[in-house]
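Hello, quick one for you while I still have it in my head. A protein chain has come my way and I'm curious about its shape. I'm sending you its amino acid sequence along with the backbone structure tokens. I'd be grateful if you could look everything over and explain what you see. Here's the protein in full, and shout if anything looks odd to you:
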Amino acid sequence: MNLVSFFAGAGGLDLGFKKAGFSIIWANEYDKDIWETYEKNHPKTILDKRSIVNIQSDEVPECDGIIGGPPCQSWSEAGSKRGINDNRGQLFFDFIRILEAKQPKFFLAENVSGMLLKRHDEALKNIKTMFKNAGTGYDLSFKLLNASDFDVPQDRKRVFFVGIRKDLGFKFKFPEYKNNKITLEEAISDLKENVVAAKEGNKTNKENWKFSNHEYMIGGFSSMFMSRNRVRTWDEQSFTIQAGGRHAPIHPQAPKMKFIEQNKRIFVPGKENLYRRLSVRECARIQTFPDDFKFYYNHIAAGYKMIGNAVPVNLAKHLALSIKSQIENSEKKQRSISKRKMELENTIS
């Protein structure tokens, strides 16, 4: 099945669907800092570099599905919390505009858990209604998922909308949770050595990489960062990988931070040398990007941003496999019904 992808970023969602057997024939991403990374890692996909607001629906290829994650800062608990009233929040309308015009078999949209806050109830209700009523209509499924339940070594809660076009005759069922949790030790322990610090000004230290993108952001830690523990142990899952490098979790080689008082912690005295941020490559591993997926940037912050904004590849793959199998089963059932109907009509005639 052929898909188009909006707000593609580096393409974590796209890669997960490709691994499940879909073809991403066309993608859209407006951030120029991401273009090289996307094009070099998805060479068979046409990349449109305009803002979605400037794309007419007839410029989008015919497709079986539309996927994407409209920008989430507007809904974030750590962000402006303005939701649909923010210009970025309104990009949902353009996603729905194109969905309505193209009428693919399905769509998937991802966003942050902050959109579930009570202050956004009315906006969320309206978005659900618009998804359901797009074109000839979609049966909508909606759920908050934690990536750690789907072969991702990270606590990461995100909201997913999945719509199945009504004529397919079924409502999507989200995949079952996986019981086995992947630990940080399983995910990144082999990367403990050969890591390098970014250059001054947090420019990339590419010439010293022994492993692609294996460099970490340097510089101090804010009082907000030091307000709570930022270390997960080797036998745990990572904290959420965020889009800002300064907020990257601390590497599990360090002991958990020492509590001083409410909203104040320190690095364990005498072991300060163990406290460093996770590298760009370690964050990519935790987001389940394969090692041959390379990120291109001059300033290390751009690497963290691309990775932190992505949908974890393994989570995307689980969702994609479920969508694919359920659509195929529905179509097989419909063909069987049509065949029996024709046989009955021939018998009567």
Observations:
- Residues 68 and 147 are 17 Å apart (CA to CA).
- The first strand starts at residue 2 and ends at 6.
- The first helix runs from residue 12 to 19.
